[in-house]
Structures are given as C-alpha cells and as structure tokens.
Amino acid sequence: MNVTIIGAGLGGLVLARVLHVHGIAATVYEAEPSPAARKQGGLLDIHVGTGQVALEAAGLTGEFRGLVLAGHEATRVLGRDGSVVHDEPDDGTGGRPEVPRGELRQLLLDSLPAGTVHWGHKVTGVRALGDGRHEVAFAGGATVTTTLLVGADGAWSKVRPLLSAATPEYIGRSYVETFLYDSDTRHPAAAKAVGAGAMLALAPGKGIQAHREKDGTLHTYVALTRPIEWFGDFTDAAAAVERTAREFEGWAPELTALITDADTAPVLRPLHTLPVEHRWDRVPGVTLVGDAAHLAPPNGEGANLAMLDGAELALALAGGDDVETALAEFERAMFPRSAAAAADGDELHELLFGDDSPHGLVALFGGQ
Fold first, then answer.
1. With bands split at pLDDT 50, 70 and 90, how would you rate the model's confidence at 300?
2. How many CB atoms sit inside 10 A of residue 232's CB?
3. Which pLDDT tens digit goes with each residue over 147-186?
4. What's the Cα-to-Cα distance from 74 to each of 46, 88, 91, rounded to whole Å?
5. What is the pLDDT of residue 287?
6. Angle CA(145)–CA(148)–CA(152) in degrees, nearest 5?
7. pLDDT exceeding 70 applies to what percent of the chain?
8. Measuring CA to CA, which residue among 50, 272, 38 is closest to residue 160?
9. Residues 267 and 231 sit within 8 Å (Cβ to Cβ)
10. Helices 101-110 & 10-21, crossing angle to 10 degrees?
11. Residue 171 burial (CB < 10 Å; 0-12/13-18/19+)?
12. What pLDDT was estimated at residue 324?
C-alpha cells in the first residue's frame, strides 16, 4: 500500500508518520515550496484526548514534551478599560501544554524518511479513474495516479469535491492578525496587559485576543463581526490599522497598542466553516482529514482534531487487510466527533462575541 497525501499540515504529517511507524509507505505533496515558506501560526494547546493521543501513536510524546513552553497556560480576561475581570494562572499541571505550531510541524517533518514530502506541488485538479484510482494533476503539468488518496489540504481542499459538494462559507467574522516583538522592552504596557499566557478583551461582536509566545512576542488576533467587504484593501497597511483600531475607540491604550503599535503589517484572516454535520457517502479510494473534512471557526480544536484524524486513519489502515473497510471505519468515528466539536465551537464563539460577552465566558471560567 502506498498512500498519497495532499497537504503537509499537521494532519497529513501525523498520518504519514503513523503509517511509517507501521511500515506503510506514504507520499505527501505540498503546494508550498519549502518548510520555511511562511510562518506556521502561533501557539497550540495540545489536548489530552486528541492531539496528545495522536502524538503518542506517532511515537513522539517525548520529543513533543521538549517543545512545551512552561507557564504559557495562563489565561486572563480584561475589561475594555484594561481592568482584570478574570485571572487564571498556569497551575503547572500541563493539562493543555502550549507548543509553537511551526516547531511541532518541523518535529513531524524530521520524523519522516527523507523524500516523503514533495514540496512545490500545487494541485490543480483531481479526477476519478475508476476502481478506486485517482489522478492528481499539479501546476506545471505533472500528474500522479494513486489507489489511496487522502485530502489533508485544508479549507479550500482540491480533493473534497470527489466526496462532497460542500464549500466553505464566511461566518460573518474575521480576525486581524498582528505581532509585537520583544514586548517586555519595547511594548511594556501591552506586555503587562497580556501577562504570561493568553489574554482576551471582549465585547459583543468584537474582541482583542493575544498570546505571549517565545522571546516576548505578543501574537494578536483582533476579532470583528463585519461583512468581508467592510475590511477593504489590506495592501494599504496604515489604512487597515486605522480602520481596525477605530472599532476599539475608548479602549485602554495598552490594549489598542496591540493593533496600532504592531511590528508587522496587519493580516486579514476571514473565518469560514463547513456545515456542522458535514459528511459524505463512502467513495472508493479517497477520504479527507482535518479542515478539508470539518472546517470550523477557531476554537482550539482544529489542529488537535486534524492530528487525531491522521492517527486514527493510519491505525485503521494498518490494522486491517481491506482498505475500504478501514476508510469506512475511520469515517464512522470521525463524523460524529467533528460535528460535536464544531457545535461546541459555535457555542464558544457565542460566549466570546455574543450579546452577553464577556460575562458568559467569565461565568464559564468560574465554573457556573
């Protein structure tokens, strides 16, 4: 069996690694030209029942523990005036350890045999050839034919149309991403407001969410519930900053500094989702993992579920002689799990940005 995986994100790489552990070859095709082509996001909290299970199946628990940033599980909620509404320090138990996403991805890449990942292979089309075989076409004209194809290629998956007509829909909210570097020295007021871990300053329809990363970097996602057209042209960085900051007029300057004093140009991150109950009928020779299968608004579960998908699919393939039975078994478990996580994510976004924000979230943190 040789498995063809489209996408070298966390889900696709865990799939390739667990297959390798069980002696099954896999080839990963990735559109990006190299592992360093772009920043791989911020910190991920790796959950006990999902992401940590996947890394255990990959045989990488020890190496993963070496990436954990101690003390970064702290969480605080601030009022728009900068006052501390809720403060939950890191309790030191490591229940949801934080690791840099890029370092975790590199750990998985390093765990694979040389040549497993083929960089610079952007998929332009996929077509069924019959009998469970598929042809994948790449920019430049190259093609590959496979008997087992896995789409791990994210929100705008090129593999998904083989299984489903569903397409991502904008949820009416976007994030604006910014960074402040060396914050304790260069941005001390903002650094103090964010604290040791995650900070949330929320109001109905909007919020400023930041996380302290390595070396005093403050990584911020500013949430605004607006039509996508409202955000305009982000190629004019100064205008985008001014437009975003205006929505937080009157908020504490140590909070708005996360927008106005950023050391990078703001990046617009529109949020899209697939239907909560997204599923498909079994199609021979192909399946999906991660956001390609169950895209949802950010809720802390996406990367964890993608890794668990990859591990469980690999274990199903390694544990049986019939590929179609393994794919069906994997999908039967994935569908309800991802639907439940997406529903929970919708509830979380209501707590974060709904009419009762931030009071409902504070009550949740307080155990009410």
1. confident
2. 12
3. 999 999 999 999 999 999 999 999 999 999 999 999 999 9
4. 14, 6, 8
5. 98
6. 100
7. 99
8. 272
9. no
10. 30
11. middle
12. 96
Query: pLDDT (tens digit, 9 = 90+) per residue, 219-255?
Result: 999 999 999 999 999 999 999 999 999 999 999 999 9
Q: Are 151 and 157 in contact (CB under 8 A)?
A: yes
Provide the phi-psi class of 82: left if phi over 0, else alpha when psi is between -120 and 50, else beta: left
**Strand boundaries in the chain, DSSP class E:** 2-6, 25-29, 43-45, 75-78, 84-88, 98-100, 117-118, 123-130, 133-138, 143-146, 149-151, 169-180, 198-203, 206-212, 218-224, 267-273, 286-288
Q: Taking 70 as the threshold, does the pLDDT of residue 367 lie above it?
A: no
Q: What is the rounded CA–CA span in Å between residue 298 and residue 199?
A: 16
Which of helix, strand or coil describes residue 239? Answer: helix
Token output for 302? 């996406």
Number of CB atoms found within 10 A of residue 294's CB: 27
How far is Cα 30 from Cα 35, in angstroms, rounded to an integer?
A: 9
Terminal CA-CA length for the chain = 51
Q: Contact at 8 Å (CB) between 292 and 157?
A: yes
Taking alpha carbons only, the member of 349, 224, 338 closest to residue 297 is 349
Q: Which two tokens mark 233?
A: 């042209």
